[in-house]
Each structure stands twice: as C-alpha cells, then as structure tokens.
Amino acid sequence: MKNKTLFKNVRLLDVESCHGMSTPCDILISNGKISNIGSNIKVNNECNIIDAKNNLLMPGLINGHFHSSVNHMKGSLPSLPLEIFMLYESPELECLRPSPREAYLRTMLGCIEMLKSGTTSVQDDCFFVPEPDEAIIDAVAQAYIDSGMRVRLAIDQPELNELKKFPFLNEIVPNDIRAKLSKPSKTNSKRLLEYYDYLINTWHNCEDGRIKAAVSCSAPQRVSANYFLQLNELSETFNLPFYAHMLETRLQRVFGETCLNGNSLVKFTNELGIMSSRLNIIHAIWVDEKDLEIISENKVSIAHNPNSNLRLGSGIMPLRKILDNNINVCLGVDEAIADDAVNMWSVMKTAGSIHNLTNSDYSTWPTAKEILISATKNGGRAMQEPKLGTLEIGAPADLILINLHSLPFIPLNNLLRQLVYCELGNSVYLTMVAGEVVFKDQKLSKVNEEEILIEASQIFEQKKDLIISANLQAEEFMPYYKKMYQLAEEYPLDLKRKF
C-alpha cells in the first residue's frame, strides 16, 4: 500500500467561508496524516493520485456516542421510556450471551453502515450481556481493526443491582420481585477493573493508534462511588475519555431529588471530583443552570443523541443554553435499537431541526455551521484527539469525498445547509481512515460486505426465539417499572421544561 495520497482538484469544507468551501486545490496525505495543502503539489510515482473533479473533501463524521452491542436489533422494540426500554435492551440473561463470532458480526454491521455513509470514527460505549468476557472484547476490537474504522472502545457495565439504580422501585415491588431485583450484577468492580486492564494492555493504541480504549461507568447511579473513582483514575492515568450517561430522563432528575439529597447527578459527580475535560456526559437533557455551570467550568463534553432521545421520549436537550455556556457538544447515534439506523447525517438533520420547537426566538435556533462542527471537530475533542475532525496540517487523514453533482446538491444554493438538511450519506463516494481508502465507488476495500451480511442474517435469524424468550422474562417486571415511571412523572420538580 502506498503511504502517500494526493487529492487533486478538490474543494475543502470551510465552514467559515461564505461559500462553505475553498476554491479547488490539492491536499497531500502522508503516513496517515494531512501533510500539505496547496496548488499543484508535486509528487513522485510512489504517490496514489485521486482526481476529485472539484468535489468536496471534508472531515469524516464522528459518531460521538454509540452502543455497538445491539447493532443486530434495529427495529426490535417499540418506542418506550428509557427505564422500561432497558428491561428489553440489556437484561443480564444467559440466553442472550453471544458467541465471539456473533459479537464480531454485530459490530461489523455498524462499521459497514458507518463507513459507507461517511462516519470514520466512533466512541463505542460497548455493553456486554450478560457480562464481559475477554473473547468478546477481542471480537469487538477485531471487527474495528478489520473494517478500518477509528474507535474509542469502553466497557459499559453497571455493578449495582436494579433497586439501587432507580427511585421508588424498592418500595413498590412485592417481596418475591424484590429478591430478584436485589441480586448483585454478575460482574463486580474488581473483575470489571481486570477487564479494563485487559482492554488497555491488549488493544489500546494498536493499529498505530487507530484503536484506543476509553472508560465508562454507564451512569453514576448504576455504580458504587468507589468504582466510579477507580474508573476516573484509569481515565486520568491513560488520558482516556470517560463516558457517563447523566440526566437523560426526567426520572433521573427525580432520582437526584429523592435518592441524592436533592443533588443532581451532575452535582453528585462534581462532589466526587470526577468532572474533567476527559468526561463525556451523555444526553444532558434534564440539566439546570448550576449543572451547566459545573460542566462548563470543568470543560466537560456533552454527547447529543437527538434521534434516540425522540424515540424514547426522553426530552429535548437545551442546546442553545449549552452552547452559550461554551460547552463542547458532539453528536451521536446512541444505538441501532433506539435510533434504528447508524447514520450520522440523520442525526445532524434532527439536531438541526428539533431545537426549533423549544424557543420562539428563531435567532437562537442552531445553524448548519454549528451542527457540522459538532459532527466533526467537536467529536475529535470529545475523543481526546484535538485535530481529529479537522482539515489542519498534521490532522489524522480521516476524510470523505462528497459528490457535489448528486441530487442533494443540485442546484447548489447553500453548501452547509444542504449537507445538514439534504444529504443522507448517499453522496459519499470515498471514505478514508488514517490515510487508507476504506470505501470507494460503493465498495468497501477491507470487508467483503456481501459475505458479512449473508452470515449475519443467518446467524441472527436463529437468535430471534431467544430474544423473544428474554422479552417474555422482562414482562414479569413491567407493572412495577410502569408504576415507577408514573410516580416519577407525577413528582414535582422546580425544573420547568416544555419538553
């Protein structure tokens, strides 16, 4: 493989310019990074030359939050509130334990969908049902290696029992149900930290840094304070992003009021000393002004997942207030069972539209420029990769070519708006990660897509009965989770929200 590529006659995305892109130029890629931008760059015969024909080169999209574990379950569930949805999404049931091959295939399904539509990097907050396992960690990492994607991979595994994660539940369940829900998680904190040692020692920084680790507590209310602090120490030692779902739902706000002496999960985390620029707060829908002040002061990133939030009825994140507090916002799919597609263009369009409902002052509505920056540069910041998602010299060459002669751009009226509101990924005709072309002219270069899809279809078709069985087991708990949800909805909060 040639380690240099020259894009000739290419227009570069420039969100600051009046046209949204540069005049035609050349851009040289060397050893996986952008090394030169100019006119008529001279190269030798060892360089791979791609004539872009005045089309658009832009940073690859960054999926700032993702759970690859349910890539095979798209469309499986109706729209449900998160707390009820999770009964079906991630129960610790032995019948749902995947083989390493199944874990590889489901991860690869997401990689294929992302690379073909121009997503080059992902933060995979991977959970493991019913528990983590070295062979499954290996399978997930290997899929990312084989696909050519860039990834931050974490182990998202709660350690507390169900009764400690929610308000009201302990009081409303009968004794037999309480006994089942009070069972500890299958994997304790000591074992989880051993899995993290394995992940970091085996996979962190492999493939020239394309595969890196991250850490995850899932959510502060799902782990002990001691484990939360130990994860933060790991994050600090290895400079790893730290993922934590916070204030995704109204019920989680109520949890703080009833179980944390009135503290929000953000304030609770801050009091533990865990807020830092490495932290990614996932969702941040039910935040108040004090929460935003804490997040801003500590340079925490927020991952916005609007499609998932709508699907689960969680609410609409106060995006303008967050941006006005100078908080870094990246965008994420969340997961294929809650978004049902792994398509960052869809996420951008929703992010660029849904917030128009929250304020009649249309001057506060998000701009296409803000959305594009969130889907690229801000994702790099959240991943602890400050040049990722940019076209700067020295930035990783994670790039996509957009066909400006395709329908979304005919006629070309406003490039930035048409990228956010018109494009769905079909105009991507080349995807490059770390300087290597991984998708071109509708064909993946490192993956036999047809074979993967046939095998995945056959294997997961055979798993449907097990998934149905798992869903039936969840039905036992449904009346009590519904009651808990109802109580939380009725609980009075000072935080007044339209959505």
Q: How do the helices and strands line up, and which of them pair or pack?
A:
Layout (H helix, E strand, L loop, with lengths): L3 E9 L12 E6 L2 E6 L9 E4 L4 E4 L1 E7 L14 H8 L10 H17 L2 E8 L7 H14 L2 E6 L13 H4 L2 H7 L7 H15 L7 E3 L1 E4 L6 H14 L3 E5 L3 H10 L5 H7 L7 E5 L5 H9 L3 E4 L1 H6 L7 H6 L3 E4 L2 E2 L8 H8 L16 H8 L1 H6 L16 E4 L12 H7 L6 E6 L2 E5 L2 E2 L4 H13 L2 H11 L3 H13 L9
Parallel strand pairs: 1-4, 1-5, 6-7, 6-15, 7-8, 8-9, 10-11, 11-12, 12-13, 13-14
Antiparallel strand pairs: 1-2, 2-3, 5-16, 16-17, 17-18, 18-19
Main CATH class of the domain at 60-398 and 443-449: Alpha Beta
Overall structural class, as computed from helix and strand content, comes to alpha/beta
> Main beta sheet, described?
9 strands, mixed
| Mean model confidence by pLDDT | 96
Number of separate strands: 19
Give the quaternary arrangement of the chains: single chain
Question: Could you state the CATH homologous superfamily of the domain at 60-398 and 443-449?
Answer: Metal-dependent hydrolases
Number of helices, counting only DSSP H or I runs of 4 residues or more: 19
In CATH, the topology of the domain at 60-398 and 443-449 is named TIM Barrel
Sequence stretches where pLDDT stays below 50 over 5 or more residues: none
Q: Per the principal axes of the C-alpha atoms, what is the gross shape?
A: globular
Strand content: 15-25%
Straight-line distance between termini: 52 Å
- Please give the CATH architecture of the domain at 60-398 and 443-449: Alpha-Beta Barrel
C-alpha Rg, in Å? Answer: 22 Å
Portion in helices = 25-40%
